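in:
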């Protein structure tokens, strides 16, 4: 079982008004799409995607108590890192199309670095509500043929990133698709890939406590996102009725997304 390693924050980058990246020296090997549990002393332990750019880093969207505390952290503050956990993306047939929305790109950055190492051709579609909220433009523009969509048209194509992805899928001979972001977005992407018979993998977010398949907090139609996922293939997702429709709250109740 992986132990918690206590690390010090070595750099903080403000990415958008609600998102920060925290850098630290964790140093363990991990595969693209795997996640870690971040222990915030005295507050909580929460799942986060991990990536590495010289230092390891997580990218945190402010939501509730734990993520707000991470946003207040300064250089030399300590957090615990447990992992790597979960399965990973498998980088298959290229051109690989990446579709991300909001903070979802955090889970795909390492996949993009890996695809570059493997010499794979990657097209990325990044979506956000506004230009201000767009994430990882630097990472994706260097390593992929990047396209952008914003809901208000302040950058790139005006509209949803799924519309942009549909155009790319119609135009290019896409080999496989990876997606991470809001579940309604991923549901649409999976549906499009099914229509065109393109292999697709999506990374799901569910409320998690243990991260190692014991507590069942992240159960989704009998699967556990922490150990059976977080990455699921399209063929698995069609059998998961809760996908895109319901999520389990902290108290275990199922609620519509
Ligand atoms: C595998 C995995 C990887 C993740 N990677 C990232 C990441 O890279 N960056 C990032 O910012 N977040 C990521 N998350 C989500 C992150 O764990 C939650 O935002 C965090 O736990 C919220 O904690 P909190 O105490 O701040 O908010 P809470 O008080 O727990 O919740 C505040 C609000 O956020 C909602 N929420 C909380 N957890 C989740 C969740 N898992 N899915 C959907 N809604 C949720 C709650 O319903 C509530 O409305 C990931 C989740 C998983 C499962």
């Amino acid at each position: 079982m992986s132990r918690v390693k206590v690390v010090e924050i070595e750099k903080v980058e403000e990415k958008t008004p609600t998102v920060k990246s925290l850098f630290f020296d964790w140093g363990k090997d991990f595969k693209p799409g795997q996640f870690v549990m971040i222990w915030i002393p005295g507050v909580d332990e929460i799942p986060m995607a991990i990536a590495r750019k010289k230092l390891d880093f997580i990218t945190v969207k402010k939501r509730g108590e734990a993520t707000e505390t991470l946003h207040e952290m300064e250089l030399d503050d300590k957090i615990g890192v447990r992992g790597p956990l979960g399965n990973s993306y498998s980088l298959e047939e290229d051109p690989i199309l990446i579709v991300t929305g909001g903070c979802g790109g955090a889970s795909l950055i390492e996949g993009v670095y890996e695809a570059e190492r493997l010499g794979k051709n990657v097209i990325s579609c990044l979506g956000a509500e506004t230009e201000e909220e767009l994430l990882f433009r630097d990472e994706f523009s260097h390593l992929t043929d990047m396209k952008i969509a914003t809901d208000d048209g302040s950058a790139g194509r005006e509209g949803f990133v799924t519309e942009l992805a549909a155009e790319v899928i119609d135009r290019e001979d896409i080999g496989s698709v990876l997606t991470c972001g809001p579940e309604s977005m991923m549901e649409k992407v999976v549906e499009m890939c099914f229509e065109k018979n393109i292999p697709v993998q999506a990374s799901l977010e569910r409320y998690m406590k243990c991260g190692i398949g014991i507590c069942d907090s992240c159960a989704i139609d009998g699967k556990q996102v922490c150990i059976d996922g977080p990455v699921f293939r399209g063929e698995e997702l069609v059998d998961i009725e809760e996908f895109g429709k319901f999520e389990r709250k902290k108290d275990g109740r199922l609620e519509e997304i």
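note: The two ends are 33 Å apart (CA to CA).
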